[in-house]
């Protein structure tokens, strides 16, 4: 029986996976055109799986030399000679273990490199060996190098890229034999390597990979693709799930991030059954809520990688905090270093020319991180919400009206009247600190990105298959409030709900604190005022 896979390469015969054949066909077009390019995507984004599928799709027409730099140690980059020997051994392994057809003369030359003293070897000697092979080869040769991140901070690798670039230019101008196509894959876009190793007085714009074609192929998983994977699972397990609806929901949470899609499905298949016996209920909104709670609580390799990046690059962490906690709207700018890095590591994406957190899972995970840091500073709301937790659930439903009522009381008791320096982000943080322990372990929350700004924020709570929408805002007058009531009413229509909630932070000294009911058309709103 097949399984869902979240480690190493996905294999169609062993794993449930999204059909990526269309993506592979698009990449093949770049190879057929003789392009050199880089596939740079975030960690666990399906790069290696895609490269393996591409290799299989090319072997009839090309000789494919598919290498990985993952196992190269620091010593392999110390000098030209050591790199030549390491590279030669990788190629010889392709012959010995994978049967790549390389001529005896080429094999002998590479073996000779491995036997010589490293200081006697030069990079261009290695490249000449490949050119002689390519010149007599019956098929064009394609070079694929995976995990090029391990080459970061190594000048010798840039020298190697320089030789590939020179060969490409000579091929285009005078037909000198060289690789038909070169594909480099990793998290770090190769053009950014120069930033890390060039001295300040050197010209940084002359990248050794400036001949590379743009790679714009979407590698996220579509709802249709996810449905195809779930259809295959359904044919084997007969759960009775609505595969189209489940695929849509999984896509909404993950934005098609391959690891997150597979991990949610893996948890539904193996872990959620411990909480939900009925298999149909497991593969439903209820089961998905449980899987999301599990993935948000686990310390998996992807989250470890993301957290490591934030710890090493505090400026990126500050930018993400501003986007989430302060509602800062950043315009997409491919020349801005922090934006480039946040995209490269998978934190953000370009949405209508503005910066947005890549997916709902990442967004909630980051919110939880930033809120935990606030809890360490001031746990008042955390304790109050936790102590009163049991009174907010009635017959399996969340009593959001009571949550708002108690929040207003608690805020007034602890802080008193609002101060003019108060910002919308302060209210959001404090309310989430109050809310988190109440729903923790049973429900999830997320912030609707389209409404997150300095004037308005919508919090969506998923709790035992029910949804609750709370609009947070600063009071800007009665007219603005009426407009807000109309907006949330329309938003309720989108979610198919008839009851909504509003929490206003009001600086007017004559304000009426507390909670009241307001009817807007057929919608009932509970409006709380601090």
The proportion of strand residues reads 15-25%
Extended strand count:
16
Q: Which radius of gyration do the C-alpha atoms yield?
A: 28 Å
Architecture per CATH nomenclature, i.e. the level-2 architecture of the largest domain: 3-Layer(aba) Sandwich
The CATH H-level superfamily of the largest domain is P-loop containing nucleotide triphosphate hydrolases
State the separation between the terminal residues, measured CA to CA.
57 Å
**Might you state the CATH topology name of the largest domain?**
Rossmann fold
Largest sheet: 6 strands, mixed
Q: Which descriptor suits the 3D outline?
A: elongated
- Taken together, the total number of domains comes to 4
User: Please, how many helices?
Assistant: 20
Low-pLDDT runs of 5+ residues are: 201-205
Q: Helical percent range?
A: 40-55%
Q: Output the strand order for the largest sheet.
A: 11-12-13-14-16-15
Classification by helices and strands: alpha/beta
CATH class annotation of the largest domain = Alpha Beta
Question: Would you tell me the overall average pLDDT?
Answer: 88
Structure described in brief:
This protein is of the alpha/beta class. 49% of the residues lie in helices and 15% in strands. The strands form five sheets. It has a six-stranded mixed sheet, with helices on both faces.
Describe the structure.
The protein has 530 residues and is an alpha/beta fold. The chain has four domains: 19-197, P-loop containing nucleotide triphosphate hydrolases (Rossmann fold); 223-297; 301-357, no CATH class; 378-529, no CATH class. The protein is built from 20 helices and 16 strands. The chain has helices at 21-32, 47-58, 80-98, 104-115, 123-136, 155-174, 193-197, 223-237, 243-254, 258-270, 279-282, 285-297, 301-312, 314-325, 337-344, 360-377, 380-387, 400-415, 424-439, 478-495; strands at residues 3-4, 15-16, 36-40, 63-68, 141-146, 181-186, 348-351, 354-357, 393-394, 397-398, 443-447, 456-463, 466-474, 499-505, 514-520, 523-529. The strands form five sheets. A six-stranded mixed sheet has the order 11-12-13-14-16-15, sandwiched between helices. A four-stranded parallel sheet has the order 3-6-5-4. Strands 1-2 form a two-stranded parallel ribbon. Strand 13 (466-474), helix 20 and strand 14 form a beta-alpha-beta unit. Helix 10 crosses helix 12 (285-297) and helix 17 (380-387) crosses helix 18 (400-415). The model is unreliable at 201-205 (pLDDT under 50).
């Amino acid at each position: 029986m097949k399984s869902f896979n979240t480690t190493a390469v996905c294999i169609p015969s062993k794993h449930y996976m999204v059909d990526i054949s269309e993506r592979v066909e698009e990449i093949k077009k770049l190879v057929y055109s003789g392009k050199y390019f880089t596939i740079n995507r975030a960690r666990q984004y399906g790069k290696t799986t895609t490269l393996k599928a591409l290799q299989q799709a090319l072997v009839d027409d090309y000789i494919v030399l598919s290498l990985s730099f993952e196992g190269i140690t620091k010593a392999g980059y110390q000098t030209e000679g050591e790199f030549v020997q390491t590279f030669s051994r990788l190629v010889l392994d392709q012959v010995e273990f994978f049967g790549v057809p390389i001529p005896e003369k080429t094999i002998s030359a590479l073996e000779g490199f491995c036997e010589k003293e490293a200081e006697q070897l030069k990079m261009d000697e290695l490249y000449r060996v490949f050119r002689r092979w390519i010149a007599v080869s019956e098929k064009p040769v394609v070079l694929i190098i995976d995990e090029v991140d391990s080459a970061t901070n190594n000048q010798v690798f840039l020298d190697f890229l320089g030789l590939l670039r020179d060969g490409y230019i000579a091929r285009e101008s005078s037909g000198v034999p060289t690789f038909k196509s070169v594909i480099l894959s990793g998290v770090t876009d190769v053009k950014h390597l120069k930033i890390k190793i060039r001295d300040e007085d050197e010209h940084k714009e002359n990248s050794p990979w400036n001949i590379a074609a743009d790679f714009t192929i979407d590698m996220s998983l579509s709802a249709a693709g996810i449905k195809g994977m779930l259809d295959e699972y359904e044919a084997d397990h007969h759960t009775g799930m609505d595969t189209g609806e489940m695929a849509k929901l999984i896509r909404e949470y993950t934005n098609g991030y391959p690891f997150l899609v597979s991990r949610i499905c893996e948890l539904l298949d193996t872990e959620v059954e411990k909480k939900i016996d009925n298999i149909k209920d497991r593969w439903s909104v209820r089961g998905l809520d449980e899987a999301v709670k599990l993935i948000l609580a686990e310390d998996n390799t992807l989250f470890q990688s993301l957290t490591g990046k934030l710890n090493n690059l505090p400026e990126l962490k500050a930018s993400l905090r501003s986007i989430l906690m302060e509602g800062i709207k950043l315009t997409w700018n491919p020349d801005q270093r922090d934006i480039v890095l946040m995209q490269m590591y998978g934190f953000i994406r370009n949405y209508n020319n503005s910066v947005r957190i890549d997916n709902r899972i990442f967004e909630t995970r980051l919110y939880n991180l930033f809120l935990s840091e606030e809890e360490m500073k001031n746990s008042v709301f955390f304790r109050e919400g936790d102590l009163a937790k049991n009174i907010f659930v009635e017959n399996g439903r969340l009593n959001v009206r009571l949550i708002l009522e108690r929040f207003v009381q608690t805020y007034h008791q602890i802080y008193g009247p609002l101060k003019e320096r108060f910002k919308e982000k302060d209210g959001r943080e404090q309310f989430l600190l109050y809310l988190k322990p109440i729903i923790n372990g049973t429900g999830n929350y997320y912030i609707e990105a389209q409404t997150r700004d300095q004037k308005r924020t919508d919090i969506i709570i998923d709790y035992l298959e029910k949804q609750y929408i709370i609009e947070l805002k600063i009071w800007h007058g009665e007219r603005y409030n009426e407009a807000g009531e109309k907006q949330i009413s329309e938003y309720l229509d989108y979610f198919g709900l008839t009851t909504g909630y509003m929490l206003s932070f009001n600086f007017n000294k004559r304000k009426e604190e507390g909670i009241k009911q307001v009817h807007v058309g057929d919608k009932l709103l509970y409006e709380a005022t601090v």
